[in-house]
Structures
1.
Amino acid sequence: MRIAVVGGGINGLCCAWQFAESGHSITLYERARIMEATSRASSKLLHGGLRYLENGEFRLVREALRERDAWIRRAPHLAWPIRLVLPIYRGARRPSWMVALGLFAYDRIAGRTDLPRATWLPTTQLIDRDPSLRSQDLIGGYEFSDAQMDDHALGLWVAEQARSAGVRIREGVEVREVSVTGGVTVNGETLTYDRIINVAGPWATELLERSGLRSPVHLEAIRGSHLMLANPCAQPYLLEVPGERRIFFVLPWKGATLVGTTEVRQSLDEPIACTDAEQAYLLAAYCHFFPNQRPVVTGSFAGLRPLIHSTNEPGRMTREYMIWRQGNLVSIIGGKWTTAMALAGKVSRMVQ
């Protein structure tokens, strides 16, 4: 079967790889360069999504935790276990018992895994590990497992597996239109395929609209920005933004500290970049927990998350994805880095 994959992010690359492994002839189209947009601007985590449990997204968390472990086994040189600390402070939006219950569920949903389960750490141990952590009102914290990755390098590794399996990757080629009969319009020419996989991330529904096709859902483009700080990171953290239920990460990254992320709506024609307001927001949250540090920002980056509109609050929008078929056209709406291979498996079974 001749299949066209539209989109060179991690979901498109995983789909192309799996299709080729099944014996199909695959051409992947990317309008710029593979792994240069959303998939490169992640928080560098492969995780189940602890906070998604609050939205009742148990199916997604179960799938993501299984896939987290699979990435570590698949590419241990580019994905590795990490232990994050979630400190508990008096007056926090989530009391200790709620966090404990969530982590218990997280570990139970993970099932059989090589990663250690969550444990409680007393205040003295937390401060011994990281004297810069705010000690006022600190009552202890939980340490739990997830995984970290080099998202760009891991995505390029997937691309190499796809190429080795026979995938033809065409960069710098924009697909202007698609059709339910298998037509792909590039450079003013319409090519015909047996199946088309529209996995263009935040631009998936825009491609449908440009092609005169409807989307079953409204896709929101939510910008997530991150800061790079010069100082080394003593300990990976999951922290609650002061006065909010939002969480953010403080992570070690290449000898420095990665802080993120934000959740801001934007249109597809706006620049994808961290704004001054987002930088101030992240720095204020960081300095609340590390009051004696004087962070030096050495850089920033931002990416667009494709989220299915389910509420007016970006932080509570579903992280689930949708696979929708119209004739010979299959569109993927949404999708997470961690679950890219699981998503690809479902799409592969759908197009047989």
Note: Residues 2-39+152-217+318-351 form a domain with the FAD/NAD(P)-binding domain fold (CATH 3.50.50.60).
2.
Amino acid sequence: MDRDRIRLPLLIGAVVVALLLGLALGGAGLVGSLFGGPDPRAIATSSLESMRAQNRLVVFVARYVSVTSASQSRLGLSTERTLILPGDVRYELDLSKLAQDDVKWDKGSKTLFVRLPDVEIAGPDVDLTSAREYGSGGLLATFTDAEQVLDQANRAKAVADLRNQARGDVPMRLARQSARQAVERSFAMPLKAAGFSNAKVIARFSGKEAADTSVWDISTSYENAVAEAKRREAAQGQK
């Protein structure tokens, strides 16, 4: 009985909201028909304000694995530590940077052009539970703080390496492609709902074009990460 009393006002409120929304949409359609139909530029402006209110949009998430090594020598003794650290990186679009000048409607082609700010990287969010540390030990590690120093150095290098991997051409291209698709859908849906079934939305980055690709899973296994780290170290040694 108590649950019914609680649910009844909520149900009535939902019905009232639905009726008000229906009346508002119906009134907007009537006004549009009286004054020449809906204005696509007004719809685009409304969509723009709605997107700006979201602030930041996560368009892509990828996981990387970094393998770093550090060594130290003192008094003829040496020790080495290796860290394998996975981390997740988010690719975000700062929608608050979108301005009215970034949205242009071309009446002839019925196309809405949207200029986007570039994708930004957030993170990495390192996965400490999956991290692995290995060391050669020895007297230097036993009687000094060399092990702690090397661990700190490895963690700093690993975080920097994860961010460098995240900035690679392939993940940035995938993130930009995902961002374009998300923005195009957000602008296209209100236009189509207003009757512009033939309207097109084209979102582009300033000076940065990302090719379409169907490869979305770029997670890296430990084995591949180790092999890639050795390849990078070998390449750096040849410079």
Note: The radius of gyration is 27 Å.
3.
Amino acid sequence: MDPNVIVNRIVRLAKLDTTVFDEVRDDARELIPALVVAAIACLLAGLGALLFWKVVPDFEPDGLVVNTLILGTIFTVAMYGVAALIIYVVMAQMYKVTIDLQALIRTMGYAAIPLALSVLQFIPLLWPVFALVPLALLFVMMIYAVQSASGAESTQVVMATTIGFTVMVLVLGIISVSGSVTDAPIGAGIFGIINDYK
């Protein structure tokens, strides 16, 4: 695992160079780096939610670090993994597409990079941009990742990705609004502040 190669791929993806997905798809050594990239992106989204509550509203809810940073990051990582598994099942079972699960995980790991932009949610007035745009970019990157891993038709890729993404957003949204009135919402990124000033 060469950190310079990983950073180079992240920079290339930031420039929308989606050939990165083809590279990591076929490189078995990229499984752990892809998981690390996804985890760090989710952690940065959690940090963004934490900073949002520290800077933007006039108050700070209880349990902020635990709920937004720690639990939010854990739930986001877990649900992103669930989204990848759902996409795999839809492609393999519904569309009968031959797809390698590890190749999908490698590409999906790098596709999580847009979540890192959520760290900028603490900027007053601009926080909705850094809460919502990363989700849109994540969806687009997921489509490219699934396309690379599966080689399936575009319609199949978009449908499978939409199903996986929808489940992830739905569950994280439910989790974020399930806390008590005095506690910070549980969730990373937009999912931690979805019920604005609870």
Note: The chain has one domain: 3-192.
4.
Amino acid sequence: MGLRFRFNLALTVVFAIGIGVSAYLSYNLLQHNARDEVVRNAELMIRTARAIRSYTVKQVRPHLKHQMQRVFLPQSVPAYAATETLSLLPAAYKNFVYKEATLNPTNPSNRASDWEADLIQEFKRNSNLKTLSGVRQTPRGKSLYIASPVRITNPACLSCHSTPSAAPRTLLARYGKSNGFGWKLNEIIGAQVVSVPTAVAEAKADRAFVTFMISLVSVFLVLYIVLNLMLNRMVLKPIVRMSKAADAVSTGDFDVPEFTAGRKDEIGRLATSFNRMRRSLEQALGMIDK
């Protein structure tokens, strides 16, 4: 087993362990970071929706008050404004689904599903909760969700949701008198829910992982080649030359030129010692011949 083979074997084992450990750690870290990024984007969507709701109530709805007496305009509804605006987000957010899930909505499309109703009930039980998040199984795979409570804090909302008699007749004409009433001030009536498939985060992490591993393996390969070139030039070639010279001297052939001792490392000292031994052996044999 030659020196080069043993060196490369040890180097390969070290590189394989290093790549394996790096792959394990980086994969888990990238998956965690990708999920955190998705959660941050979802939180940003919820904060954006809140801003849209507030803007609609304070600056849009008052201007539509007179028109609402003739025809109901959903643009005056904060939930509608937030949902429609967020649906226009760029393609980068196409997998994000925003919904204003409500237990007793005026618009049936906002009615909470079973799992969304559970979130709302949890917010009702613990009024100090600001957000809930987790992963749920869906027919299309795992989905990451984050939810925030919807609380009635503006008395103006009760003009449409307290009792049917207080609601605009145009609203009743569109949605009827059965749903969306009985709300109370400071009551939690629903939740803002953002859902996104976990595959989005996983795909993002996988792309980053592949890029990282290709870069890491490339660095190891370059290092592997450089170390082999250095081994060959600085160690193996001088040793092979000394080995051949030692074989020649051992048979009495002293025509082999001395090594140039231009290095101050271990190989240079070995070359100096070899030259000294060669001269001593040549002198000793010369004395015997006399």
Note: The chain has a mean pLDDT of 84.
